[in-house]
Amino acid sequence: MLLLSLAVHAENLTGTVVAVADGDTITVLDAHHEQHKIRLAGIDAPKKAQPFGQRSKESLSALVK
Hints:
By secondary structure, this protein is α+β, with helices and mostly antiparallel strands.
């Protein structure tokens, strides 16, 4: 039996979404003009080069708009 413990760290981040990389990754610009690459947990979205990857990116773009 294999047991795995993962530490999860979450914090609030306020800013503007400036880019959508694919269906589960965005870039946020904060008040200090720092960019943060955010990978959304619990989403198994296709990458851009995979089938439906562009549609997945478009869907996330519409959600964060």
